[in-house]
Each structure stands twice: as C-alpha cells, then as structure tokens.
Known about the structure:
Blueprint: H1 2-27, H2 34-42, H3 52-62, H4 65-70, H5 73-77, H6 84-104, H7 113-120, E1 131-137, E2 143-151, H8 161-171, E3 175-181, H9 191-206, E4 210-217, E5 222-224
Amino acid sequence: MGEEKKDKKVNLHEGHRARMRERFRKSGFKDFNDHQIIELLLFYTCPRIDTNDLAHKLVNQFGSIAGIFDASFEDLTAVKGVSENTATLFKIIPGCLPIYYNARSDGKVYDNVDKLKELFKPHFIGLNHEEFRLACFDNNLRCVSNVLIAAGSPDSSPFEMRKITEEIFKAKSSAVAIAHNHPKGVPSPSEDDVASTRYINNTLKSLGINLLDHIIVGERSVVSMREMAHINVFD
C-alpha cells in the first residue's frame, strides 16, 4: 500500500513537470510567474522532489528572480533544499548573458548612444561591485573587443591608463567607448567620474583616438555622459 502511494505521488510530480515543460515549449515564459520559472529551473537539479515549495521559498527570501540570480553562492546554498548544483545553475544563467549578447552583436554598427548602452548593460548584470570596461571599434563602428579593465569595491573601480592604451593598440582601434557601473544606486556621474573621463579623453585625444562616450550603468537605468551636455569632458 505504501509503495502504491509513493508511485502515485511520483507519477503526479512527473505529470506536473511534463505539463510545465510543454507549456514553456509552446509559449516560453508567457503567463509564468516568478516562482513557476524558478520551479521549472529546479526540475533540472532536483529530479526527485516536488520543487514548488522550494521555488516559493527562494522567491520569498530573495524577493525576485533577479534577487535569486544576484545572490552569492554561499547565500543560495544556505537555503535548505538548495544544493551546490542548484546554486551553480543560478550563477551560470546570468553569467551566460554577456556571452549571449556579445555573440548577437557581431557585425552590429554602434553609431548611437542607445546602441552603446545596450552593448555594455549586460556585462554588469548581477554585479555587487564596480567594474570598468573598454569597448574598441573598427572604422565602421563595429565592436572588435569589449574587455574588463578593472574590478573594484562596491563604490569604486580604479583603472590604469596603461592598460586602456594597451587594449586599444592591440585592437588597432581609433574609436572607443568606456563604461562602469553603480551597483546599488543611480547612474549619476560623481566628481571622480567626471575627472577620470576628462583625463582619459584628453590622453586618448593626444594619441589620435576618439572617445565616443562614457556609459554608466545603474541599478535600474543607464546614462550617457556625452548626452549630459552640462558635463564638458569630450571637448
């Protein structure tokens, strides 16, 4: 009798999983809520348990799917029921996004501010510290490299001018853009941001290199320093 109940429960779980997978295959995540998306992902690391309760627990604890993906490996595995495999999966997904966007940007021409914002934005997803990046372009403004120059603390990312110029010469580029993030705040440029941008621009200009823009990625928005006409660092 006990085995019969167990088999019935297993069949119920398998039927639910099959329906969820089929629903996703037909219409993607349309009409899925956060916990259902997490539940679907958990199917692949929790093969023998009902993942509904764990999905609810994760969404409640971290607040959203973004909160789950942004959580540290240690915070994830501290949740009862979250294995190392599950935590690794949740860190793999946001880690794949910049690679995915880079692949899709191959051959794209970056001839306006909105395109530059989209180029850099995926590289800062899930970060809780500042990073400073450099993108180099060919004569047709196609991106030939997008590299990390410096990683820092939650509120700074000191860079070396030497590393910037080395990357530019390696890419044989005469047009570049830079970007950094404000992980937990608005992307308004600080005094240091303005001063460092002016320094970089003047240095590159003396080498015949055009600094297209400095993009700042905040928690919920992205700004272009070139669009901020009151900040005269590109003259």
